[in-house]
Amino acid sequence: MIRVFALILCCQLAGEAAARSLALPVPGPVLGMAGLFVLMLASPRVAQAVRPVGDGILRHLSLLFVPAGVGIVGHLRLLGENALAIGVALIASTVLAIAVGALVFRAVARLTEAKPDA
Amino acid sequence: MRDFTEIWSYLAAGPLVWLTATLVAYLLADALAARLGRAPVANPVAGAVVLLALLLWATGTSYDTYFEGAQFVHFLLGPATVCLAVPLWAHRATVRRAALPIVAALLAGSLTAVAVALALGRAFGLSPEMLATLAPKSTTAPVALGISQSLGGSPTLTAVLVVLTGMVGAVVITPMMNALRITDWRARGLAVGVAAHGIGTARALQVNPQAGAFAGIGMALNAIVTALLAPWLLALFL
Fold it and tell me: Domain boundaries in chain B?
């Protein structure tokens, strides 16, 4: 458990260091994810050890967004003044992005997976 | 026995009370969501945020004081992003086969999320600073804050918009996909991961493991795509 957690933090640290030092547009934790993925592919032992810990953390991914969400208390005035604009932009863009993403996925999957051997 | 207010002011100044409150509020909201049969509108993040906001208001506590305790939870967003390697690894064969639809849906969804938000925000007269704050809202929190800052937005407000976006996505995904008759779990998961990051991914993980894996991939890849797209799109809309 502690070993796995140390490994996860090492991946994040390496990702952050690489993103900063090379001025990459890719965020550090995402590079860390790529690093962990490569390690899991390379070693089945690592993969078996990391899997339950990763699944456990991701099961309560929602919890991790709560502190940022509570930040709303500091922005009520600004949000209130722009409520309509922000509300419309946020809801419409999210709904449309989901619809476009899912429809494009289905369309391309049909085109590329139509071949029986694919 | 000492005065209650004295004990309270001692406790409320440290991180313990607010870290505990964050976990308990989440557990209460999550239990309520389970009670309601995981209905899309019963989002545990929304419930916990409302409970905690009321508690802060009732006790006259500032967000800065609250965050001293809550930062320990907030910090885990980074390691959790790293952990998205796990579903990616578990479903690696399925993901490899679906590489083309993934890339196409990722680019289309990401572009729509940023461009529609900026176009509508501008049409409704938002300031350039607010547009910069709004642009990265479909990206997962730690990444969105960085993008917002580099564009000249307000990172703390971006964090709030990120959470609101995630809630919208988590609430609409199931009814909307049913209405559009999209039954492919891969398409449903990827779309919600791209548009509504970790909160959408959490919802997808609840509904179906394959949808969860694809949502995780969508969220991770969109962090990269938005970092590249947002500055360019913002320049178009300013």
Answer: 4-75, 81-237
Question: What is the dihedral sign for C-alpha B168, B169, B170, B171?
Answer: positive
pLDDT in tens, A60-104: 888 999 999 999 999 999 899 999 999 999 999 999 999 999 999
Residue B140: which of B91, B96, B200 has the closest Cα? B200
Contact A105 B186 (CB under 8 A): yes
pLDDT at A105: 96
CB contact under 8 A, A86 and B161: yes
Q: What would you measure as the largest C-alpha separation in chain A, in angstroms?
A: 58
Cβ–Cβ below 8 Å for B85 and A34:
yes
3-state SS class at B236 = helix
Q: Smallest Cβ distance to A96: which of B87, B116, B143?
A: B116
Neighbours of A79 (CB within 10 A): 16
Q: Higher model confidence: residue B84 or residue B20?
A: B20
